Amino acid sequence: MAKYLISFPAAAMVVRDVELEHASRDSHAVIEAAKAAGVYVFGGGIDAGVPVVRVSGDGTVAKGGYPSGSELDGGFAVLELPSRDAAVAWAARLATACRCDQELRVFQFDPAS
């Protein structure tokens, strides 16, 4: 089985305040379903209130992330699933619950992890 990253950037979450409570409830229900199905690895949201730093191999700390990279924010879930089709199905469930499109990526297999 492979691990899949299902995520969305914060800017994609464009819902009215009244709808935000429902999106939160519904997305938590999907995560609970993933836990019950035994496919949930971990997930959460990036805390935008904590500044990003970049740490070099020598331990030097610089403010901000990679200059050429896109900002990593929003929410994510990592699920361990038997197929890409299963991953697409879970991503669709999360997209419906969150009321925004989800990005789907697969982690490369690393036998040491």
Automatic annotation (TrEMBL):
It holds the Pfam family YCII. InterPro entries: Dimeric_a/b-barrel, YCII. Residues 24-96 form the YCII-related domain. Belongs to the YciI family. This is YciI family protein. It comes from Luteimonas fraxinea.
